């Protein structure tokens, strides 16, 4: 789909490259990081080149990766050597850079959160983890969530189909938290049930209604700490409940939130606001 945006879905051509470079001309290009970060999406390089070569009936491009997804890189570092028809290198350039730069930007953002959370070890030895959300680029959710994992983060639900998440509008429509939870259990007994809570009282209500996972929304550190303690006190009779802080989170606040005892922090900005990691393709003279 990305190649069709560049080449046109009907003609599939690069009028500049095809007019100026013979299909027989071969060369080598380096994939280079222009800034520090964590890389992800490198498989897009090989896949894009493979598809371009198929479209234009060109000889294959050899790809030598020098790093792997999830690796930290420095500005100026060469990530891969690409050798083959120059037409293929130039036609594929923007598509593969767009995908890999996007994924690497998400991975870099996730790594920043992971680095902070790794410094906060609670008395029981646990650490909070950063979660992504569904605030992903349409059509690129699998890539975005993969990139979060490359940065050390954890995936939350993939979509509306795999986990039930009862939020305020669902509660209004169902009549109560208990009614909403009961309806999900009856209709889709195999899925985990998550419930959003704005207060300690709502969190306790959700646990008593049978929630497996709570989203503690827009609470300050004191409210989070008190809610965590209240929920943990109920676990002896009903089992473990996973707790996530969400809303009004920042890297500056991450350590103090982690210290409250929550299991996770969900950060939509990982995928909806992460800047790309600047990657470039340098053709050797």
Automatic annotation (TrEMBL):
Gene Ontology molecular function, alphabetical: nicotinate-nucleotide diphosphorylase (carboxylating) activity
Tree of life domain: Bacteria
Catalysed conversion reaction: nicotinate beta-D-ribonucleotide + CO2 + diphosphate = quinolinate + 5-phospho-alpha-D-ribose 1-diphosphate + 2 H(+)
Record carries keyword Transferase: yes
Domain Quinolinate phosphoribosyl transferase C-terminal residues, every copy: 106-282
Pathway in which this enzyme or protein is active: Cofactor biosynthesis; NAD(+) biosynthesis; nicotinate D-ribonucleotide from quinolinate: step 1/1
Annotated keywords: Glycosyltransferase, Pyridine nucleotide biosynthesis, Transferase
This enzyme's EC code(s): 2.4.2.19
Group of enzyme by EC: transferase
Domain Quinolinate phosphoribosyl transferase N-terminal: from-to ranges: 14-104
Similarity annotation: Belongs to the NadC/ModD family.
Function comment: Involved in the catabolism of quinolinic acid (QA).
Protein name: nicotinate-nucleotide diphosphorylase (carboxylating)
Organism: Flavimobilis rhizosphaerae
Biological classification of the source: Bacteria, Bacillati, Actinomycetota, Actinomycetes, Micrococcales
């Amino acid at each position: 789909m990305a190649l069709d945006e560049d080449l046109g879905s009907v003609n599939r051509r690069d009028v500049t490259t095809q007019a100026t470079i013979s299909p027989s001309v071969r060369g080598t290009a380096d994939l280079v990081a222009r800034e520090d970060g964590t890389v992800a999406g490198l498989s897009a390089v090989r896949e894009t080149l493979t598809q371009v070569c198929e479209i234009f009936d060109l000889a294959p491009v050899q790809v030598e990766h020098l790093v792997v997804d999830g690796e930290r890189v420095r500005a100026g570092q060469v990530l891969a050597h690409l050798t083959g028809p120059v037409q293929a290198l130039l036609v594929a350039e923007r598509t593969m850079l767009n995908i890999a730069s996007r994924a690497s930007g998400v991975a870099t953002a996730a790594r920043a959160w992971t680095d902070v959370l790794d410094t906060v070890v609670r008395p029981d030895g646990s650490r909070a983890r950063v979660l992504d959300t569904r605030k992903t680029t349409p059509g690129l959710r699998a890539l975005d969530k993969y990139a979060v994992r490359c940065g050390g983060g954890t995936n939350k639900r993939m979509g509306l189909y795999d986990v039930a998440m009862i939020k305020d509008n669902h509660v209004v429509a169902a009549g109560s938290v208990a009614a909403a939870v009961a309806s999900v259990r009856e209709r889709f007994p195999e899925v985990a049930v998550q419930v959003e809570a704005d207060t300690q009282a709502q969190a306790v209500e959700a646990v008593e209604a049978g929630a497996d996972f709570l989203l503690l929304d827009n609470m300050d550190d004191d409210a989070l700490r008190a809610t965590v303690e209240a929920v943990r006190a109920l676990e002896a009779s009903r089992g473990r409940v996973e707790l996530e802080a969400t809303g009004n989170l920042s890297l500056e606040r991450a350590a103090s939130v982690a210290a409250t005892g929550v299991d996770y922090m969900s950060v939509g900005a990982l995928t909806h606001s992460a800047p790309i990691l600047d990657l470039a393709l340098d053709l050797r003279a």
